[in-house]
Amino acid sequence: MNPSATSPVPAKDAMGMDYEPVYAEDNAPKQPKILFYRNPMNPSVTSPVPAKDNMGMDYLPVYADEEDKTDESAGEVKIDAATVQNIGVRTAFAKKTLLSHVVRAVGRVAYDEERIVRLHPKTEGWIETLHADKTGEQVRKNQELLSIYSPQLVASQQEYVLAINNLKVLEKSPIEDIRRGAEELVKSSRERLKLLDVPEHQLHELTDSRSIKKSLHIHTPADGIVINIGAREGQYVTPETELYMIADLSKVWVYAEIYEYELPWVKEGDPVDMQLAGIPGRTFKGHLTFIYPYAEAKTRTIKVRLAFDNPGLLLKPDMFAEVTILAGKQVDAIVIPSEAVVRSGAHTQVFVVRAPGKFEPRAVTVGLASNGDVSILQGLGVGEEVVTSAQFLIDSESKLNEATSKMMEPSATPASEPSRLQIEQGAHRHD
What we know:
21% of the residues lie in helices and 36% in strands. It is built from seven helices and 27 strands.
């Protein structure tokens, strides 16, 4: 009942209870080994012998069993089950799966540059009649657009008629070189009219009637919509004058901009869906045809070009649309939820569950991200459990533990050595 009362021989106390024997090995309590002493106010300052700080406070001993705890991972956190529940810790397992992505963006409908025709005259002259005189008008290939009077065209017709008449006279000549020369003259004068865009039907008419026409027709080389008219009736034009700009809208381009982090997902040929507010309930199917090799300086986005068929000419240039690029790229990788990743400066880490209530910080290398998941390239294995919520609270505790662990380590710098006064005080105290 009173351990301070002892007897060298067996005895009984006042209540008749036998004294308990104390054996030699029990009487020698194990003294843990003292490794060094640390400043109570600044753990980074240590001393190999007992000492006092400037405020007269004794240095605290650090024992060997405390040093053994450093075998644990730096920054490792231990939390009891009640605290884990209170702070709302949730976890998820790393799994290997196919990671895919869908890119959504806003697009702008534009002309297909490969289907735009700019029509210029091949000679100087005056516009006499303008048949297609309204912008937005739809024209068909070989349709007559205008008639032009050109002195050069009249002179070329005259040369052609003279060459035909000359060939008729000389075709029965016994001299072969004369016949061949007459034939070549007809051929070259006819070719000159073709190069000046004289239509084929007028050449036939000229050949048959040999009647020179004051004005010749210019026809459209392709189907399309008249986008611009550069001349009017009576106007003098030169080869520099753009008479018409005609665009074929049976196919259109759509320009969209994607963010830099989405660039690894997309490639040329990926299918694209497009919807427009002006055409409700209709989804247009197209594909990605080109990724521009530069980024936009102001928006830090990359422009891509999409191609769509345009039946019924419903898609009109400069309309805005919502596009969805169905990225065909898939990545077979180890995947965890994106919220499990803690980014701190240049470091990226996750907290791995080592045991119930025991969390270890681990540096990882992340790859592509999609739909709330991120792929892990290095640092994590399949089936490992990671923290997905409250990890910032755990991260704070981890950094505190890591800092404390570093401060507990004896420093080899001169600043960690005790002063002569501290050594003398420690020695005096030890005596």
